[in-house]
Amino acid sequence: MSGVVIIGAGHAGSQLAVSLRAEGYAGAVTLIDASDVLPYHKPPLSKTFLKDPAALPQPLRAASAYDAAGVVRRKGSVTAIDTAAQRVTLDGESLPYGDLVLATGARNRMLPDLLGASNVLSLRDLADAERLRDALAMAHSITVIGGGFIGLESAAALAGMGKSVTVLEAAPRMLARVAAPETSARVEDTLAGLGVKLRLGWTTQNYRRDGDRVTAVLGTTDELSCDLILVGIGAVADTALAQAAGIACNMGILTDAHLQTSAPHVWAIGDVAETPHWQAGAALRVESVQNATDQARHLARILSGAALTPFRTVPWFWSDIGPLKLQIAGLAIGADRRVVRDDGARLAVFHLAGDRLMSVETLNNPADHMIARQVLDSGRTPPDAVMVEGAAAMKAWLAQG
Ligand SMILES: Cc1cc2nc3c(=O)[nH]c(=O)nc-3n(C[C@H](O)[C@H](O)[C@H](O)COP(=O)(O)OP(=O)(O)OC[C@H]3O[C@@H](n4cnc5c(N)ncnc54)[C@H](O)[C@@H]3O)c2cc1C
User: Fold this and answer.
1) Among 79, 116, 72, which residue's Cα sits nearest to residue 94?
2) Which of 33, 51, 117, 135 is 20 to 30 Å from 257 by CA-CA measure?
3) 263 to 13, 99, 123, 165, 230: CA distances (angstroms)
């Protein structure tokens, strides 16, 4: 019996390894990662980690938790999968598997023009965060390319360190792909209040260089000098290994609703998995800690002998942008109208597709977020007036059944 082999010890892989044992799985569990750092929380890397030169990675769980669960941790890169022979190649060594789980995560998208420049960085893992933190010692003027979550979280953190920060965003507003205009406006105001310069509708024409350094970004009308560039333009799923093994991939590794790939005994979870989504009615890749850990728990039950059931949770996500806690529950896919509750300090935006509530975004409003998750899970939609009243009214409405 060769047990379960997990490739990738991020949020998904680490959770699966310990959940298997918690679910009563009796076989061998091997957790492989290219890094030998104890699996750690990724979210702090763009938030608190940058600000504190002494900060250490925060482990997801102690080393003793893996030992207690009988999980064998192996350092190394898996370079090949033979799905017919049920074996993987780990740094030249061939390992058998009973079931194989691909939890290889995602890689940062990069701008081809900036590849190889010594002062252009991105943020995906601990090594990136350490490189960025070291580079900050010699950098005052920082240009962030991309107004998404990681770019804006980092911009707020860097401004808090006294850096001169400019964010370049091609869209007419920050977070345009993922949040409502009301949310974007509040985020933009807050960042401006922190001293972050926001350039919306930005088009880069060229870069000025000095040796292997980029010293300025040239726009259509002006030129922005910088000591350091942080690129935050999204991520692509790490599908190379699966593709080379002939496993079906699209934007991620394709799975069915039970997280099984096109190859027998091969599964995919976390950022890398593209899975049919009950709310979207289509296959999606979701990048969040909640998705990674909930898929891991679900798969642990299946691999431990539970009946095959579709993965179904209300997706939720958070982002800390300076003093703002943005929380999103559900997916706004197909939404065509919004209900907004804004009391100045707290914001809630309800996205509806016709009469059906699809998602809820909140700023500094955890009470609305928590109840919104329950409402979305119920599949029911409160009247607009109840949503406008807020958490207590939604809770009472939900209790009425
Ligand atoms: C800076 C940052 C901030 C974030 N903030 C938030 C947040 O505030 N809220 C939120 O919900 N989400 C946040 N996220 C997203 C969240 O961290 C990811 O959704 C989550 O890490 C996905 O977990 P995963 O296990 O699928 O992938 P990962 O955590 O990326 O782990 C994948 C692992 O696979 C390993 N690997 C890949 N290929 C191989 C191979 N061939 N052999 C061996 N090992 C391999 C990699 O080394 C890596 O350790 C953030 C992400 C980043 C980068």
Assistant:
1) 79
2) 33
3) 19, 10, 32, 47, 38
**Rounded distance, CA 197 to CA 206, Å?**
20
**316 occurs within a structural domain:** no
Give me the domain span that covers residue 136: 110-231
- At 56-91, the pLDDT tens digits run 999 999 999 999 999 999 999 999 999 999 999 999
Which residues surround ligand 1 with Cβ inside 6 Å?
7-13, 32-35, 42-43, 45-46, 77-78, 103-106, 123-124, 150, 238, 241, 270-272, 287-290, 292, 317-319
Q: Residue 164 C-alpha to ligand 1 middle, in angstroms?
A: 29
ipTM value, please give it: 0.99
Asked whether residue 354 is assigned to any structural domain, the reply reads: yes
Closest C-alpha to 36, from 57, 9, 68, 55: 9
Predicted confidence (pLDDT) per residue in 271-313, tens digit: 999 999 988 889 999 999 999 999 999 999 999 999 999 999 9
Distance 115 CA to ligand 1 centre (A): 22
